[in-house]
Amino acid sequence: MGKRDLICLCSTILALWSVSFVQAEDAYRYFTWTVTYGTASPLGFSQQIILINGQFPGPKLDLITNDNVIINVYNKLDQPFLITWNGIKQRKNSWQDGVLGTNCPIPPNSNFTYKFQTKDQIGSYTYFPSTLLHRLAGGFGALNVWQRSVIAIPYPKPVGDFTLLVGDWYKFNHKVLQRRLDSGRYLPFPDGLLINGQTHSTFTGDQGKTYMFRVSNVGFRTSFNFRIQNHQMKVVEVEGSHVIQNLYDSIDVHVGQSVTVLVTLNQSPKDYYIVASTKAFSSGKGAPPVLKATAVLHYSNSQSSVSGTQPAAGPDNVQWSLNQAKTFRWNLTANAARPNPQGSYHYGTIPITRRFVFANSVPTIGGKQRYAVNGVSFIYPDTPLKLADFFNIPGVFSLNSIQSYPSGNSASLGTSVVGTNLHDFIEIVFQNNERSMQSWHLDGYDFWVVGFGIGQWTQASTATYNLVDAPTRHTVQVYPGSWTAIFVTLDNQGMWNLRSAEWGKQYLGQQLYVRVYSPYQTFANEYNISSNALLCGKAVGRL
Ligand SMILES: *[C@@H]1O[C@H](CO)[C@@H](O)[C@H](O)[C@H]1NC(C)=O
Ligand SMILES: *[C@@H]1O[C@H](CO)[C@@H](O)[C@H](O)[C@H]1NC(C)=O
Ligand SMILES: *[C@@H]1O[C@H](CO)[C@@H](O)[C@H](O)[C@H]1NC(C)=O
Asked: Which residues belong to the signal peptide in this entry (predicted)?
């Protein structure tokens, strides 16, 4: 945390904030972040990166459920900039989501103060820049939400926690990579895999004690498998779900996802390898090389440095990974951030209001390779969709500009927004007909991951759904030539980004917005626009 960060819990200052989400008993946490370019040598040679308060990765946010977070972000880059809070649900508050469909970007040499609440959430999350390809230069960090003291968690409190932000990395500058995408080519294969922006992290713990490892895939295009030499990992939480606490030798983590595991240091006192390695989910000719990142688990009473064979990855095939994914199940008797058990919500018995099948594709449009969903390759208008909706500005987007099912039509550029109603209960099937992995993220929500399958989804696939103890999460993988089905209860009014978590794919058009609407416009359903909202495009001068 930088010197300028200020944490304030005093209630007199609270009273000065007239924002409608105020809940007097919840703490206020104040931060000032300055975003700059800097240099670092994560791959052994100097390159330009993006720093927050001089740090890469950015400062770790350790928050508590229901904290009110106020972060004043100063943009000292030469391009417009936004940060999105990956997995923070922004209840009634898509105003603070930090994506170009909800917020005007912060101009260079300017600032914007985000105000949001970590309402009813516990877990390991991340934040990252959502503008252009800034994310490929840094600016990301950990966002951990701890339980309130009155809430029981379904595992003994660990003596400490470690954050591992693992992700693929390029030797190229983000602007060079952007030009490449703009010219119609996709991102190259990454040049390395980093853990916390480095290739040599060490995590120190005491023999006999249990530690929490918060493992996130902050990469751009590659899934990885994660393991610790001679140690088993007990998965306790997946993106806010408390799951059945199984033990694993290795775990697959896909782009944009987070997993929280407990590890007991129950081996002889030495140092052990921590290894992450990329998975291709394809083999034979043309399969990309495996990138590996290692770190060290150091026992505080260690007698010797790391030795022996590095632990092997789980098999690099779809079936193995899919089988593991199905072992992540809701612990029905455990609570999440609220005291009631997760299993008291019988999601499997709720009638589906509407089904969407979203198929991703890689069309050529105007002579350039683009990425599309149901034949639409998303482009941003100059005015954020949320502002256009709020101020009734015509000509920015239209509802149902994308079909609910894949069509045979040729692909085109468009601003896809699907219209839904508050309290709809929807099913989304992601059909991945490409040969590469896909990872989908929905802002404003978590959702039940009810099914995975290889091949084409059909109505008959619904018979295989887990309607009892599927976990909820905010990002889900779709294997090559496979489908994944989710259920979402649309209880959060607003304008929400549904996107490929693979950053180049969303940049080139694999994203859309879900407008969750109610005809009864009340600030009880959705907060008012914030008084400091930035205005741009057709919204200039509207406040
Ligand atoms: C920029 O920072 C100033 C100083 O703290 C603050 O008063 C102002 O509200 C911020 N601007 C925005 C748009 O949030
Ligand atoms: C489920 O959660 C309960 C807490 O309610 C905990 O005692 C139990 O160990 C958990 N079960 C499994 C299998 O993880
Ligand atoms: C909503 O917010 C805007 C901007 O701060 C303000 O001008 C307006 O009065 C607010 N509306 C209500 C009903 O509070």
From this structure: 1-24
